[in-house]
Write a structure and sequence with these properties.
This protein has about 250 residues and is an alpha/beta fold. The chain contains 7 helices and 7 strands. It is about 40% helix and about 15% strand. It binds NADP nicotinamide-adenine-dinucleotide phosphate.
Amino acid sequence: MSQDRVVLITGATSGIGAAVARALAGNNVSLLLHGRGADSTSKDALEQVAAEARALGASTQTCHADLANPGAGATIVDQCVKHFGRLDQLVSNAGHASKKPLTDATPAELMASVQSMAAAFLELAQAARPHLAESAAASVVLTSSFVAHRYTPGELYPITAAAKAAAESLAMSLAAEFSASNITVNCVVPGYTLKDPSRYPASNWQDQLAKPPLGRFGLPADVAGAVRFLLGPDARYITGQKLAVDGGLQLG
Ligand SMILES: NC(=O)c1ccc[n+]([C@@H]2O[C@H](COP(=O)([O-])OP(=O)(O)OC[C@H]3O[C@@H](n4cnc5c(N)ncnc54)[C@H](OP(=O)(O)O)[C@@H]3O)[C@@H](O)[C@H]2O)c1
């Protein structure tokens, strides 16, 4: 059911972020949709998601910023509040994954990953806090990753795991700090989730990996459903949680 709210979604160009936009879109919902926007393909993809959300009844505004740049998170929140006049909910979803082994990875690559996923999340949450504190539906959801919880040889994403673990830890601390303002902060922890085939070539990981216990890989809509729940009225008493949406991947 739609409720009157303004939601900022980072990384809404494709995949999980785009699915969250579709899941939340409806009358009385305003969406600030963010993408990195490094090229015209990326910008066009975000405009397409915005058009789909508007067709579902939402008001939309798009913005672009590379979260690898310090300060980008605060700029995005600023744009949202300038355009819609308020901010009720934040979905910090933008991210990427690197399989580079630690034997080759550099400390600079680690810091870049931490900046774009953990530090950017902190910036977004800090900038959002005064606006969220004015809302009766104030919630933050972070998209983390199974890679921060699973260390199976052949499936390692060491740099990304470190950045996502840092972001999750920040989310737990923010949940504690923000509770005084009745702002909930939770994480979704996706497992292997199929990418948008219109943006990414078919990957062979689907053939190489055993399927998780529920017998299939995740869809962006699976994760979006969990995000919608955590932002919804039935989750107002839930904070500081990490909800795995992984078909049982973490069971074994
Ligand atoms: N797919 C999976 O199997 C999986 C599993 C676990 C967790 N996750 C997490 O789920 C989230 C969404 O991933 P996805 O699978 O939906 O991937 P996706 O389709 O590639 O979407 C990633 C989004 O993040 C944006 N982004 C990436 N790096 C950015 C940066 N430095 N600055 C600003 N925006 C940036 C991208 O913008 P542009 O397109 O403009 O570059 C895009 O909108 C990520 O945090 C990812 O780590 C995914």
